[in-house]
Design a protein that fits this description.
This protein has two domains: about 5-165 and about 280-354, Aminopeptidase; about 170-275, 2-Layer Sandwich (Alpha-Beta Plaits), CATH 3.30.70.360. The chain contains ten helices and 18 strands. A hairpin with a 2-residue loop joins strand 11 and strand 12 (about 215-230). The radius of gyration is 23 Å and the shape is elongated. About 30% of the residues lie in helices and about 25% in strands. By secondary structure, it is α+β, with helices and mostly antiparallel strands.
């Protein structure tokens, strides 16, 4: 008996979940993906650094669309191996983004594309780590054929909507310095934790700021996500540190974003920028994006987060987010992806590509 699309997609997603691939440990999954492509007669190759490429990888007569997915997951939370239950595939990475990888593999094995557009498949590692440690930007640098594509579809969990643009993402260390002393005589000391409290309170008072691009709303926000200070209960601390996460909108240059954050923080303490993943532009008006929206009657939303579409954008490729996973399920202990959602995105992309 021939398996139905829902059966194939569910089984493939479960197989992918059951191959562990936490960040920096993606090699086995990269081998699985390459083996699946080769076994199905699809042109695929090991592109190095736990990256696998398949399908059409250089533009020809038709527009070239890259479907992209990351192989890695966050650490397990008692949710590995996976299972199929209640119309969904459950397990580590189901939504983010083993379900999307299954859609990509099944499209490749079905020979999708070659009508309206050609399809290429980009599998890469270390997306869940800071962007400087990721595998995608180096891959794009060494694969000129990919840079000639007309559009990249990053198959992040979007619940079947198109999410356009993305926020820039700054991570920084904020250091507050004082003078140590005995907690019984605090007037002889300068409490670095108190300095940190004043600075954090000032930052917390900054309200989120809405920005609109091509009719989509992005919210600029800043948060302190971790605070460390003190060595003992009876010692006034001489140093305290805080981790700051700042999300800035499309259209704001990275240098301006960093200067803005320094202006808020440096009156209170030293700020060191640990990483800055730039934002990505909104390309909802791109002809291929418009045709995809029309093909599926899709909602178009702002991406209120950072995704690798920014890395594609940095190499001159228009890019959007579209995938079957529910963003609310990503990185959770209860992570799952609905089988109907897998089928919906698979059929949409297969029909659209021709």
């Amino acid at each position: 008996m021939v398996a139905t699309p829902s059966e194939r997609l569910a089984a493939r997603t479960l197989e992918l979940i059951d191959v562990p691939s936490e960040s920096r440990d993606e090699r086995a999954l990269a081998g699985y993906v390459l083996g699946a492509l080769e076994a199905g007669g699809v042109a695929g190759r090991d592109a190095g650094d736990t990256c696998v490429l398949g399908g059409v990888l250089e533009r020809g007569e038709r527009p070239l669309v890259l479907l992209a997915g990351h192989l890695d997951t966050v650490p397990a939370q008692g949710n590995h191996p996976g299972r199929i239950e209640g119309g969904a595939v459950h397990g580590l990475g189901a939504a983010d983004m083993k379900g999307s990888l299954a859609v990509m593999l099944e499209l490749a094995l079905a020979g999708a594309g070659g009508g309206a557009v050609d399809l290429g498949y980009v599998f890469f590692g270390r997306e869940e780590l800071p962007v400087a440690e990721g595998a995608l930007t180096p891959l794009l640098g060494r694969e000129p054929g990919l840079r000639g594509a007309d559009l990249a579809v990053m198959m992040e969990p979007t619940a079947g909507a198109i999410q356009a643009g993305c926020l820039g993402n700054v991570n920084a260390t904020w250091t507050f310095r004082g003078r140590g002393g005995h907690s019984a005589r605090p007037w002889l000391a300068d409490n670095a934790v108190h300095r940190a409290g004043a600075g954090i309170a000032s930052l917390a008072a900054r309200e989120p700021v809405a920005h609109r691009f091509e009719g989509l709303a992005f919210t600029e926000v800043v948060s302190v996500t971790r605070v460390v200070g003190g060595i003992a209960q009876n010692v006034v601390p001489d140093v305290a540190t805080a981790h700051v996460n700042y999300r800035y909108p499309p259209g704001m240059p990275a240098a301006d974003a960093q200067a803005r954050l320094r202006g808020w923080c440096e009156p209170h303490g030293e700020l060191h920028i640990d990483s800055d993943a730039p934002s990505a532009p909104v390309v909802a008006g791109h002809p291929l994006v418009r045709s995809l929206v029309e093909a599926g009657d899709l909602a178009v939303e702002a991406k209120q987060a950072w995704t690798p579409i920014a890395e594609f954008a940095a190499h001159g490729l228009p890019a959007i987010n579209l995938g079957p996973g529910d963003p609310a399920m990503a990185h959770t202990r209860e992570e799952r992806v609905e089988i109907a959602a897998l089928v919906g995105v698979y059929e949409l992309l297969a029909g659209w590509a021709g």
